[in-house]
């Protein structure tokens, strides 16, 4: 396996690491790109992206993990593009670079949280995306905080009522009892007052259908109690059950895992699921 530090010649000249086999050891027919989460640079949370890149490269899938502009070793952009625009634009540029460097025509995009949103938005723009691996996504629209995300978080807050340890801390004075009650009241109010349909809830099912219709595979990887799964269920409504039954869709729940898959066991389960899903994408193209 080879790991090359590269400068992706798009925009400000983004910096990344390309992980791949010696050309004589495997044929390249699909590439993977790992997308930053928040301000975490290309190694990913707890070096998760390094492990993903090496696992996929070992199966003959060249994998690029790069820094978005202004993160890690990549310089700032000189224009005023918001991340909602620059993220997908730079991801398309990374695909262009891999196409030139490795002769690839199809790609899987994998990202956690905000990286998952960039993967989704890029797939809508570029038909070279053969699959999107969405890891603990929390919203798919460009806004950082949306009505649907707010309602999904509210369900998560109400679920916490069943956690006796939270109430014990409040009763014993280790946390603000009034703040707990106010949080619950706000959550209940959001759920009770949410509109039957929002622009977001109407648009996302259409976007998913368009991706599936053109053959883009979707991998949904959620920590067991991640509220992003609730968000997607709210966005898709009854279509969620039909979606996860589609041949091109995989849903994988990681037990006892936090949002960033910090524990070694959660990373092991995630890596197994991601590797199997990516190989299935390659088999379909």
What tags apply to this protein structure?
alpha/beta, single chain, globular, eight-stranded mixed beta sheet, about 280 residues
Class of secondary structure makeup:
alpha/beta
For the largest beta-sheet, the strand count, sense and barrel status come to: 8 strands, mixed
Biggest sheet strand line-up: 1-2-4-3-5-6-7-8
Spans where pLDDT lies below 50 across 5 or more residues = none
Please tell me what the overall shape is: globular
The averaged pLDDT comes out at 83
SSE string, helices as H and strands as E: EEEHEHEHEHHHHEHHEH
Provide the gyration radius in Å: 20 Å
For the termini, the CA-CA separation is 24 Å
* Residue share in β-strands: 15-25%
| Number of helices, counting only DSSP H or I runs of 4 residues or more | 10
Helix content: 40-55%
DSSP summary, beta strand count: 8
Structural features, described:
The chain has 285 residues and is α/β, with parallel strands linked by helices. The chain is built from ten helices and eight strands. The protein has an eight-stranded mixed sheet, sandwiched between helices. Strand 5, helix 3 (114-125) and strand 6 form a beta-alpha-beta unit. Helix 1 (48-58) runs parallel beside helix 10 and helix 4 crosses helix 8 (227-236). The longest helix is centred in the last third of the chain and has 21 residues, at 264-284. The chain starts with a strand and ends with a helix. 40% of the residues are buried. The mean pLDDT is 83.
């Amino acid at each position: 396996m080879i790991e090359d530090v590269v400068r992706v010649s798009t925009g400000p000249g983004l910096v990344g690491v390309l992980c791949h086999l010696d050309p004589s050891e495997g044929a390249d027919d699909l590439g993977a790109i790992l997308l930053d989460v928040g301000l975490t640079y290309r190694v990913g949370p707890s070096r998760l992206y390094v492990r993903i890149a090496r696992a996929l490269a070992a199966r003959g899938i060249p994998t690029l993990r790069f820094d978005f502009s202004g993160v890690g070793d990549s310089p700032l952009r000189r224009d005023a593009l918001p991340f909602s625009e620059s993220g997908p634009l730079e991801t398309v540029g990374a695909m262009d670079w891999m196409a030139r460097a490795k002769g690839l025509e199809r790609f899987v995009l994998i990202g956690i949280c905000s990286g998952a949103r960039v993967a989704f938005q890029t797939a809508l723009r570029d038909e070279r995306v053969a699959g999107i691996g969405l890891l603990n996504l929390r919203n798919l629209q460009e806004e950082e905080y949306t009505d649907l995300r707010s309602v999904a978080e509210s369900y998560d807050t109400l679920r916490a009522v069943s956690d006796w340890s939270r109430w014990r801390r409040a009763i014993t004075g280790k946390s603000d009892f009034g703040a707990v009650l106010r949080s619950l009241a706000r959550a209940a109010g959001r759920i009770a007052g949410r509109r039957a349909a929002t622009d977001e809830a109407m648009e996302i099912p259409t976007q998913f259908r368009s991706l599936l219709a053109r053959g883009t595979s979707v991998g949904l990887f959620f920590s067991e109690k991640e509220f992003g799964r609730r968000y997607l269920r709210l966005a898709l409504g009854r279509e969620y059950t039909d979606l996860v039954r589609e041949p091109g869709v995989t849903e994988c729940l990681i037990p006892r895992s936090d949002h960033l898959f910090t524990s070694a066991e959660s990373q092991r389960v995630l890596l197994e699921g991601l590797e199997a899903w990516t190989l299935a994408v390659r088999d379909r193209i």
